[in-house]
Amino acid sequence: MESELLKRFDSLLERKHYSSRSEAIRDLIRRDLVSEEWTDPDADVIGTITIVYEHHEHELASALADLQHRHHSQVVCSTHVHLDEHNCLEVIIVRGASQRVRSISDSLIATKGVKHGGLVCSTTGRDVM
Amino acid sequence: MESELLKRFDSLLERKHYSSRSEAIRDLIRRDLVSEEWTDPDADVIGTITIVYEHHEHELASALADLQHRHHSQVVCSTHVHLDEHNCLEVIIVRGASQRVRSISDSLIATKGVKHGGLVCSTTGRDVM
Amino acid sequence: MESELLKRFDSLLERKHYSSRSEAIRDLIRRDLVSEEWTDPDADVIGTITIVYEHHEHELASALADLQHRHHSQVVCSTHVHLDEHNCLEVIIVRGASQRVRSISDSLIATKGVKHGGLVCSTTGRDVM
Amino acid sequence: MESELLKRFDSLLERKHYSSRSEAIRDLIRRDLVSEEWTDPDADVIGTITIVYEHHEHELASALADLQHRHHSQVVCSTHVHLDEHNCLEVIIVRGASQRVRSISDSLIATKGVKHGGLVCSTTGRDVM
User: Which residues in chain A have their CB less than 8 angstroms from residue D28's CB?
Assistant: First the structure.
């Protein structure tokens, strides 16, 4: 590898608290395998969906709960943190076919009133050594 | 101790998977100390509140969310499990003065529409060796 | 009912924030039905197990994690709150045959080093109107 | 805007279940504001960290627990899902100065043995309308 690229990679690893270059490269490879898993629409994956919204908007809270219940066999659990009197953060853990998980995530984040959302596409771990 | 009492205690410990009598007695003493903590209305305690309700009753879900937000500095987080298309289990972890925690628990469980509820009065661990 | 009993019941309901006597009686009946569910060892139930322990005792943390993994098809999820530098509160939601759920709870609470534990015997909600 | 760009944007919104273009644009703007919040190292933010690892590696589990306890005033709670007999998914919700939250996330993900990890940089909601 070019020494310039390696130098920049090493300084990134230091900032990211990696103890060795090989551990960091292993992580990059695993991340690549996890992304690959998600390209197969039927692969069994697990995703962490984070949304932030105002709980006062009751129709929104109901819509979010209805959506989760409609997919109750995919939704493992959700954790709710009351940020202040108005705002909530909700983390929903969803397991199932990657296409389904992504669709649930998209629907939750696109719901009118959700201020912010994000998905971590993760893995059930079996196919990633 | 009377041997009859000990015999019954030992058979209980076996059913409860205790490995020794002394560990079981230590647990009884700790449980007593935790109960004691809760009798002081200002003691800093932590409680686990479990409620089961139907999420379709939107007013109920809103009432429960409002109540938790009103006490957002006591409510650490809540975990929601979607039992089926209709029913939810919600576990709310609440930390604060024992009087306040018990009052939040009573209010949540007494909310019209909550099918079942229970509180585990626990401890922040500092005063229980 | 005797008026003395009713008077004491009403003052309890006020303390517990119930809005009406009928709501409180409905709750008592439901609680009785939930207890009944738990007497059938094969009934599908859900329980909330709370334990407090010191995370520094690594063998304890490992034992608790192993125990939960051995029963991973019953354990829905667990929520962990870091109380301070030493103490943890862990809430484990377990679903399955009542006998199995109670046995998992007993084993977790009896594990050497667990300072305090409690179980809320709850319901999946279907059989409780 | 160029019609070609709009056409591609509209087809993306359809795939992502957005009901209107304005809701989608509002979300883009909010996402931009959230990213902006995270560029200020002292801003009060909230992040959702997801990690997957094998619970059998007891030293790893201990290292992860120690790390979270060392930052217990930032770690709100963590949710643990037992994926199978070997693998765990853990979701850690962390609140604090953005620099601190990112550093905790980097350290958790870089820990030797963690198979996969991801961070959703979210917001406490106050500064995002």
Answer: none
Is a pLDDT exceeding 90 seen at residue C38? no
Hey, are the CB atoms on A75 and B69 less than 8 Å from each other? no
Q: Looking at chain A, which subunits does it touch, using at least 3 CB pairs closer than 8 Å as the criterion?
A: B, C, D
3-state secondary structure of C45: strand
Neighbours of chain D (3+ CB pairs under 8 A): A, B, C
Using a 10 angstrom Cβ sphere, with 0-12 exposed, 13-18 middle and 19 or more buried, the burial of residue A122 is buried
Strand, helix or coil for residue B111: coil
Token pair in block for residue C29: 């009946």
What string of H, E and C letters represents the secondary structure of A58-83? Answer: HHHHHHHHHHHHHCCCCEEEEEEEEC
ipTM of the modeled complex: 0.88
H or E element that contains C50: strand C44-54
Interval D32-58: pLDDT, tens: 888 888 888 999 999 999 999 988 777
Q: Is D122 left (phi over 0), alpha (psi -120 to 50) or beta?
A: beta
What is the set of domains in chain D, with CATH numbers?
3-39 (1.10.1220), 44-122 (3.30.70.1150)
Q: Do A80 and B80 make contact, defined as CB atoms within 8 angstroms?
A: yes
Segment D60-114, tens digit of pLDDT? 888 888 889 899 899 999 999 999 888 999 999 999 999 999 999 999 999 988 9
For residue C71, the chain D residue with the least C-alpha distance is D85
Measured from the Cβ of residue A36, the count of other Cβ atoms closer than 10 Å reads: 13
pTM: 0.86
Structure tokens at D10: 């509209």
Burial of D55 (0-12, 13-18, 19+ CB in 10 A): buried
| CA–CA distances in Å: residue C45 to residues B86, C78, C96 | 16, 17, 6
Per-residue pLDDT, averaged over B49-55, amounts to 92
